[in-house]
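Incident log, structure service

09:12 report received: a user says their structure output differs between two submissions of the same chain.
09:20 pulled the input from the user's history:
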Amino acid sequence: MFAAIAIVLATVVPQAPPPAASGNLLLVGARIHTGTNVDWPGALAVQYGRVVAGEQLDPAVDAQRIELPDSAFVLPGLQDAHGHLLGLGAALAEVDLVGTASFAEVVARAAAKAATLPKGQWVLGRGWDQNDWPDTAMPTHAALSAAVPDHPVWLVRIDGHAGLVNRRALDDAGITRDSAAPTGGEILRSAAGEPTGVLVDAAMALVAPPPPTDAQVRERLLAAHDACLAHGLTCVHDAGVSAAVLEQMVALHRQGRWQLRTYVMLDPDERALIQRGPWQTPDGRIVVRAVKAYADGALGSRGAVLLEPYSDRPGWKGLLLRTTAGVRELGQLCAEHGMQLCVHAIGDGANRAVLDGYSTIAVDGGLAERRFRIEHAQIVAADDFARFRELGVLPSMQPVHLTSDMPWAPQRLGPDRVLRAYAWTRFHALGVVVPFGSDFPVESVDPRRGLYAAVTTRAPAGGPPLRPDQRLSREQALRGFTLHAAHAMFAERQLGTIELGKIADLTVFDRDLRTCSDDELLQARVLLTVVAGQVVYDGRGR
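09:34 re-ran on a clean worker, output below:
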C-alpha cells in the first residue's frame, strides 16, 4: 500500500514542502490582511506558489492577474483544524437529518429514501438531534420500524456518538433484551428492558452496515473536498483516517484531482502506519503526521465523561472510551515514531484523564515539542487549564459547538460547571495556542459560523449569548482558523500568515471580515480559494 508515494520521512515533516510547479498569481485591488500587525501594501504577487515582492514577479513567467473590487478582503487561507472528510461526503450522499424539527420528520425522510431502494437495502442517514424536538427524550424505534419494515435502517445522531436502528436492523444484529453493551457503550432500553433502538458510542459497533466501495469512498471524498474549497477552506485536519481511506485520497492526488491541503490524523488502530512515522506527498498537499483517538463520547448524547454526574441525569458521568493508561500507551508509541497524538476529550473527566496520560509520556526534548493536542477541550476542570500550558498541549476547539449546544448545555452541566465550558478566551489568557475548526459533519463545514460563534457567543438566530466573557476579537478569531491552526500542524513557518516566502494559501471574501457587522459575517461570500498560488475555487460569478 502507498507504494507510489515518493517521499517517506523517518522523523519529521519538513517546514518547507515543495510548492506546486505552477502557481503564479497577481491579486490587485483588494484589502489584504496578512495576519500580522500590518496589512499588505498594494497588489499581492505569487510566484511558483509562494508570496513574493511585486518587483520580483518575473515578467517572462505567465501569471494569472485577477482584478478584485476594493471591497474584497484577502486573508491567509482558512483552515479547519478538526473535520471528517469522509463523514462529510457520506452525509452529503445519505439521508440528511440535520435540522429536523421532530422525530416524525426523521421517520418521514427515512421512509422516503426507503421507497427508492430495493427491499433489504440499508437506509443510512445522519444528523438528527433530539434536543431540537418538542420531546427532547431519546427516540425509540417503534414509529421508524412501522414506517420502514423491510429495510435495515441506521440513522446516526448529529454528533456521531449515537445511532438509531429500526426493528429489522436490531434483529439482523441480534440485539435483544439480553444483549450486553460493550465497554464504553450503552444500549438504551425501555422501562420493560427492551432495546429502544438507540446505541451510544461503543455499542454503535454492534450494527454493521455494508462499507462503501473504493469508488464510493473516492466519490465521497471528492464531494467533501469540493464543499471545503467552496467555503473558503484551503486546509483541513482530517481526524481519524483509516489506511483504506488514505489510500483512496492518495489515489485521487496521483490523478491530479486533490487540491485541498490535508493534514491527516490516522485512526489509532493503524499501528503499522503509525510506526512508519511522518510522511507526505512530494508537493506537501497531503501530510501524515498525527493520530486521532477518543477518550469519551459527546455531551449531547451524555457520553462525555464528567468528574461529577450530569445535572440532568443523576448518577451518570458518561462513557470513558480510553483510560489514562491507554492514552499513555498510545502517546508513547506516537512519541517514539515522531507522530503527534490528538485525543478527543469533551468532558472535564476525560480532559483530566488525557492530561494525566500525557504527563507520563517520556519524550526527548519534552512533550511540548510534539504539540500533542486535545480535540474539543470543551469542559475543563478549573485546575486543569494551566496544565495545558505546562505540558505544551494544544486545545483544538470548535466555537460553533457553543452555539449549537447553548439551548441545552446549561441543563446538562449546571450553572457552575458551564462557566468552565467553551473557554477559549481563558486559554488565550494563559498564552496557549488555540486552533479552531468545526468538527464537520457534526457541524456545518462553513467557517463563517465558527467565526460568528467565537466573536458573539450567541446563536445566529439571535437571543442572549451563552458565554459572553469568552468573546474574541475578529483578529483573534481569524487567527484560530489561520496561524494557530497552522501551528497545530507544525506549519506556522510556511502557512497561516501572508509574508514573503510563505506558501500562498489564500481565502478571498467580498467584504472585510474584521470590520463588517456581526450579521454580515454570516453573509460574506467566498470569491476565491487559492492553494499554493492556484485558484481552486472561483465564486465571483455565482
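09:41 both user submissions now match this output. Likely a transient worker issue. Closing.
09:42 reviewer note: The two ends are 40 Å apart (CA to CA). Residues 1-21 have pLDDT under 50 and may be disordered.
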